[in-house]
Design brief:
By secondary structure, this protein is α/β, with parallel strands linked by helices. It folds into two domains: about 160 residues, Rossmann fold (3-Layer(aba) Sandwich); about 70 residues, no CATH class. It is globular and about 50 Å long. The structure holds adenosine-5'-triphosphate (ATP). The site of adenosine-5'-triphosphate (ATP) has 10 residues, from helix 1. Belongs to the ABC transporter superfamily. Pfam families: ABC_tran. Keywords: ATP-binding, Nucleotide-binding, Transport.
Length: about 250
């Protein structure tokens, strides 16, 4: 069986006196495309922060690539695109090349750096924008540049927190297709945080429904085929049938 690259056991998390996460247990295997869904305030970002080691683990165990998260040295293996990545204003004084270079974690010479940046931009079809100012691009284009920055050091796992906020629906579809390509062709394991269960089930291999605890972890197709009422229970929140044609 494939070894999990992330393993979470018995995780609990509180802010002040409020329990945000409880009895969290799941594995992420190499090559998976995981959709992490849940209503507002269900703890998705907190869980991601724990996986990234940004938030201190209070109770339970998390291992990343076989190491306890407290001792894990990332070295570019886990990469992250945050919720508000695509919000640069017009005129922001940085080129696409400069933004993507920030993602290079190893010491490289100038030529290697340029090649890495170009290749990462090519993966997201943005290589022709390399010398443009980041602020002059649309939200969807900026988001692609941030993906390039996140993959420029060849991560094994890429975590994206609501990356399609502010991106129009047509570009959202393109964006999910791009993620699917990165997963299948480059073999990058993905965790995609989203509100839009209907849109992501087509692309993800595993669905994780979170609302304080994990209510469902499994095949997205099996989840979609359940009656609405049962799905609402598993999602931990009322859910409408949202189907998207692809
Ligand atoms: N640093 C913090 N201190 C105190 N409470 C926090 C902190 N961060 C988050 N919370 C609270 O924890 C709960 C879960 O927040 P979190 O951001 O993890 O949820 P989420 O599922 O990502 O929400 P959303 O979908 O709205 O982004 C919320 O009630 C939030 O107000």
């Amino acid at each position: 069986m494939t070894q999990p690259i992330i393993s979470v056991r018995g995780v609990q998390h509180r802010y002040d006196r409020q329990t945000i996460l409880k009895d969290i247990k799941f594995d992420i295997v190499e090559g998976a495309f995981v959709g992490l869904v849940g209503p507002n305030g269900s703890g998705k970002t907190t869980l991601i922060k724990l996986l990234l080691g940004i938030e201190k683990l209070q109770k339970g165990q998390i291992t990343a690539f076989g190491h306890p998260i407290q001792k894990f040295k990332n070295k570019g293996r886990i990469s992250y695109v945050s919720q508000k990545a695509n919000s640069f204003n017009r005129g922001f004084p940085a080129t696409v090349k400069e933004v993507v270079s920030i993602g290079i974690v190893s010491k490289e010479n100038k030529q290697t750096k340029e090649n890495l940046v170009y290749n990462a931009l090519k993966q997201v079809n943005m290589e022709s924008y390399i010398d443009r100012n980041i602020g002059d691009l649309s939200g969807g284009q900026q988001q692609r540049v941030f993906i390039a920055r996140a993959i420029v050091s060849n991560p094994k796992l890429l975590i994206l927190d609501e990356p399609t906020v502010g991106v129009d629906s047509e570009n959202v579809e393109h964006f999910y297709r791009l993620l699917s390509k990165l997963n299948k062709e480059l073999g990058i394991t993905l965790v995609l945080v989203s509100h839009d269960i209907g849109a992501i089930t087509t692309y993800v291999t595993d669905l994780l429904c979170l609302n304080k605890t994990i209510h469902y972890h499994g095949d997205p197709g099996d989840f979609e085929n359940m009656p609405d009422e049962q799905r609402s229970k598993l999602y931990g929140h009322r859910i409408h049938t949202i189907t998207h044609d692809h």
